[in-house]
Amino acid sequence: MKNYYTILGVSTSASHAEIKRVYRRLAVQYHPDKNPSPEAITLFQKINEAYDVLGDPVKRRTYDLSFRDPFNILKEESGPVHRDPRYRGRNAGHRPAPSKPSLRHLMKEYLPKVIGFNFAGALLGCLLMIDYFLPVVQTTETVAEMYAVFKTTGRGTQRHYAYDVITTEEGTRIKFYEMKARNFEVGSLIYIEHTPLFSTTRYISNGPETYGVSFAGIYGPVGIVPLALFVISLLGIIFRKNVEWAFNFSIVSGVLLIISLFLVFAI
After folding, report:
1. pTM, full prediction
2. Is 191 helix (H, G, I), strand (E, B) or coil?
């Protein structure tokens, strides 16, 4: 590799102004019009070549790196030649587009917004268990109204029995399936047993040792939903420091919480 510093007669630490001043002096000294010496043309060409590199800050930086390490390929400076004419090299101020956040990063960001489902689910599960094991509350009410509800099927051409409804003068509304309300009468007294917290009806009768109807409600087969809610919510609380587990448990708890609330207040 040619030593351009030696050709110009300057040190490797020479400033741009010094290189420019030396070049002008040598260019005048060896210009063919002013120096008839046969060697002047060759020297003049070498001087121009050296200044073309050292006089340009970018080329000089590339040359200095290559001069120190001849085997260094400086792709960062020049960049590869792209065959597509539409390709444009990146300028010095180019900043790569921000990468999309990872799934774990999104989970960590939104976890504080959904972690509450675990605590709400665990609380609802505890309340349901307390409600189930506490002694039932017994009340005596008067039947105010009885009626049957029918549903239309077959494109609106057929009506089928769905359930009976009894409302009391105290404001209680109870659904009876399979025509089990037919043994009660308007104006008669009924004895109702319900849970203390959620007032879930467990048993209705028209007198001691007479006709009665049991109700499962939320504590029947559908009780598997709030039970699953309690277990998953508890796991979400235990593993709340694990981002992936806590986030997934929170989402499942949120879905089960909505279903459980519907079952508690709709059945």
Report:
1. 0.57
2. strand
CA 93/CA 84 separation, integer angstroms = 22
Which CATH superfamily groups domain 4-78? Answer: DnaJ domain (1.10.287.110)
Which residue in the block uniquely carries the two structure tokens 């694990």?
A: 242
Write the single-letter amino acid at 17.
A
Closest CA to 77 of 97, 98, 56: 56
Contact 197, 135 (CB under 8 A): no
Angle between the N-to-C axes of helices 16-30 and 38-54, in degrees from 0 to 180, rounded to the nearest 10? 160
- Sign of the alpha-carbon torsion through 12, 16, 20, 21: negative
Higher pLDDT, 222 or 178: 222
66 close to 73: Cβ distance less than 8 angstroms: no
What mean pLDDT is predicted for residues 99-118?
A: 88
| Residues with Cβ within 8 Å of residue 155, at least 6 apart in sequence | none
